[in-house]
Amino acid sequence: MQPHKTTPEKNSSADFQAMLADHVRDPSKPSPEGIEPERLAVYTRLVRNNLRSFLDLCFSDSSELADRELWQHLQNRFLIEARPESPFFNDIPAQFLNYARSRESEEKLPDGILAMMDFETALLHAEIAIQPISDGLWDSNTTLSWQPAAKLTHYDYNFVDSNLTAIEPTPSTILTWRNRDNEVYYRAVSGTDVFLLEHFSQHKDTFEHILQSLQEMTGGQSQDIEIWLRESIDSWIKAGVLFPEINQEKSI
Prior knowledge:
InterPro entries: DUF2063, DUF2063_N_sf, NGO1945-like_C. By secondary structure, this protein is mainly alpha-helical.
């Protein structure tokens, strides 16, 4: 009986692919045998350029404000050291951000740039997150939930007021989300909006329960609270940040 050759072939193929991947990440490493140098060079250049272009696209605003030489250096080192291997291309920006955060000394991007990169990663998340379908209808006892695409983030910097053209050392709270028409939005929020959005980003709740809690805190004296709460919740539902969950008992 002839020996089974499946395992050696698989190992050989795996070794070849590993060597090819290592060479593409770092062309100073040995290249696998059996590929013409010209074809290998074209393939390597294509993969690396595609990754750079993808990162530049995802971080189109922060990369413009970063030192270009340092930005390109970090892209190169990211390929070599971080070894991004996710099968999902959309995971790579977050991996690059984490890598950039881990750098020190001369390789460290300014904190304001890193904050803006985090914001742009949130925009990408808003673009691709899977969201439940909702008709937007609700009443005082409807359970309201935070849309998966939405993120509320506190930054030590403000880049929204300049339309992403400058970074000011002023604290800001930024909301990113996608509406029911699949349009991605962002805006700075403050005051009572921050209070309400932070609550929903951590808890499901109903209008009635929140209203009761607020009335207990204020002694139940102000009717303005009910008007503000209803208008605010309704506006965030229409915007697509909150979604009313379907009551299965009512839908049957």
